[in-house]
Amino acid sequence: MSNKPEGLTPEQLDQLKAHWDQQEDAREEARRLTWPSFLAWLRQQTDLLTKNPGLFEQISQIGPALLTQLLRLIA
Amino acid sequence: MNAPTPTLPETLARAIEHQFEEAPPTICVIGLSGVGKSSTINAMFGANRAVSATIRGTSRFDAETYDIESTRVAGLQLRCRLRIYDAVGLGEDIDLDAKYLRRYKSHLPKCDIALWIVAARNRALALDQQYLQQLNRVLPNLVIGLNQIDLVEPLNWVESTNLPSREQHEAIKVIAQDRKMKLGRYARQGDVAVIPYSALRYYNLQSLYLECVRSAPASRRWMFDLIKSFSTADWLQRAKGLSPSQRQSFVEKQEPAADAIEPAALARLLGRP
């Protein structure tokens, strides 16, 4: 019977973590780019903003949080 | 009886959907046969799971509009769209290439992103170079994707970690540099990124997606975010060597916690005290 532990070695886990971190940095960077883009679009929705005064300020105060998180609010 | 007045969230959701209907985000996917154009789009946007309506003209240059229910928004039915111009045909028949190129030139300016895909193992770049040279004036915001890097010599992708082997890693760096020199120089925007990835294994897909977002017109980047349908966990899931406990602890440790919105901001948005 083998005593070999299951799973990856610490060195392999380090490799995995390094790539995960790099990918998560890329994901965050993409999100930082999409937030101002969404705000710029929202600013153009004059009907929506006229009928709902303060909406733009409320949303923009959330800061560079995630667009997807924002949309969860409207679920 | 009057219909109930839509709430603010509903109104916002409808405005977003209207934007997707009017002008869906549009990608032109270009590449010779077999480089993985469809698998790349499917991995990034889940278009294979969508109901599609095909606008098929008399040409081989087809636009497909996918209705995508955003999978990123839990509990919300938000109908989004993605338009793909799949530039098939190039390189199949030299007699037809001139016709295809004319059609490319007319359609490419309508696209937000031109995603040019080459297979990492393919060293014959003359056709790609020739087409890039002819199209570079009309190419919007080019991204070059180097797909199928798991098939780079010596073909010893590490299945247990879903990562390239050390030898492949070195070879991929050399290939990416080479393709940047040989293909990137034809790009209108000058310094074009060449992103190595594997659509099949979800490897480095976040990097490819980031480059697509960077290349999209600033005013339309947010639309791509809504239809993105993968996460880093999709790559990790394919690392076959992780034991269940390692997988669990890895995701728990690594899961970003910074996505939460401040409760006060949430309350303000919902109009609650």
SSE pattern of chain B: HEHEEEHEHEHEHHHHH
Strand content of chain B: 15-25%
Largest sheet of chain B at a glance? 7 strands, mixed
Q: Share of helix among residues of chain B?
A: 25-40%
Q: What structural category characterises the helix and strand content of chain A?
A: mainly alpha
Question: Percentage of helical residues of chain A?
Answer: over 70%
| SS class of chain B | alpha/beta
Q: Rg of chain A to the nearest angstrom? A: 21 Å
Largest interface by residue count?
A-B, 49 and 58 residues
Overall geometry of chain A: rod-shaped
Strand content of chain A: under 5%
User: What pattern of helices and strands is seen along the backbone of chain A?
Assistant: HHHH
How many domain modules of chain B?
Answer: 1
Distance between the termini of chain A: 53 Å
Output the keywords.
heterodimer; A: 75 residues; mainly alpha; rod-shaped; B: 273 residues; alpha/beta; Rossmann fold; 7-stranded mixed β-sheet; 10 helices; 16% strand
Please write out the topology.
The complex is a heterodimer of chains A (75) and B (273).
Chain A: H1 10-43, H2 46-51, H3 55-61, H4 67-73
Chain B: H1 8-22, E1 26-30, H2 37-45, E2 51-55, E3 61-69, E4 79-87, H3 94-107, E5 113-119, H4 126-135, E6 142-147, H5 166-182, E7 194-196, H6 205-215, H7 221-227, H8 232-237, H9 244-254, H10 263-270
Parallel strand pairs in B: 1-4, 1-5, 5-6, 6-7
Antiparallel strand pairs in B: 2-3, 3-4
